[in-house]
């Protein structure tokens, strides 16, 4: 099984000033640790909804709260659980393959996602029990 970095925050440059606003930028092979093959965004998600609830076999992602607040919980196969609060648009969260993750949004949240692969349903593990069976401790 390939070793991937653990979930971690990535700080993008914040260029500008309060009087004129800010821009954050990255270019290929700089801060995002993979070649971006897919970009998507989610928005208008009710605060009571928890999204995600899956892991990927191979896809790596960087999640960014372009607006609002997103609370992301990650769980690795070894049982390590981490909680990340994204609310600054120049911060991203790297989510490696084989990490179960869920997201909960503030009403105004817009989530931007950079992914390492095009959408393929076969890359998803959508049942938590399957995640634990495939990557959990083998006894």
UniProtKB/TrEMBL annotation:
Under the heading CDD domains, the entry gives: cupin_QdtA-like (cd20292)
User: Which SUPFAM superfamilies does the entry mention?
Assistant: RmlC-like cupins
Which Pfam families does its entry note? FdtA
Listed name of the protein: FdtA/QdtA family cupin domain-containing protein
Coiled-coil intervals? none
Give the range the annotation lists for the signal sequence: none
* UniProt cross-references to InterPro entries, sorted A to Z: QdtA_cupin_dom, RmlC-like_jellyroll, RmlC_Cupin_sf
Domain named Sugar 3,4-ketoisomerase QdtA cupin is located at 7-134
Domain of life according to the entry: Bacteria
